[in-house]
Design brief:
- The chain is mainly alpha-helical.
- It has one domain.
- Helices cover 55% and strands 9% of the residues.
- The protein is built from 6 helices and 3 strands; from the N terminus they run H-E-H-E-E-H-H-H-H.
- A 3-stranded antiparallel beta sheet has the order 1-3-2.
- It is flat.
Length: 149
């Protein structure tokens, strides 16, 4: 029985076939018989779509703009976003520089990222979930989404 959900990452053949010419079922993420729950689907697909696109575009990878993930009845489908114009393909010019910068500064970048991630964990350890207000819980939820992203 399909799980009824309503979020921005539900596969829509009219829109999504324009974005990606092929879509693949990804059983590693959603094996048959184990569809994503609506909350997991929303958070996971939001974070994954954002992360893949951000990394591909930040680095200017010339062959891809990332991947797009969608849900179809709780199961993950994925496509590769291919640059489709000469302007988009010209992003290769800065790709080497950006990768060199990332490699040269990886320790500093990773240290800063770890610090931020651990700050999210610290806040979760400090909150009293039993007496927390709805506002406090909403903030924690939002921080979890940010941490996943």
């Amino acid at each position: 029985m399909p799980i009824e959900t309503d979020n921005a990452y539900i596969y829509d053949h009219e829109c999504d076939l324009v974005r990606g010419k092929f879509w693949l079922f990804n059983p590693a993420s959603t094996p048959p018989g184990n569809p994503m729950t609506p909350m997991f689907e929303c958070i996971y697909l939001y974070a994954s779509n954002w992360g893949f696109s951000y990394a591909s575009n930040r680095l200017g990878i010339p062959t891809t703009k990332g991947v797009a993930l969608r849900s179809y009845n709780g199961y993950e489908f994925v496509t590769v976003m291919v640059p489709n114009s000469e302007e988009e393909r010209s992003r290769a010019e800065k790709f080497g520089e950006r990768v060199d910068f990332l490699v040269a500064n990886f320790d500093d970048i990773w240290a800063e990222s770890k610090k931020k991630l651990f700050s999210y964990l610290q806040r979760i350890k400090e909150i009293d979930f039993v007496s927390a207000s709805w506002f406090d819980l909403a903030q924690i939820f939002r921080e979890r989404i940010d941490a996943e992203r």
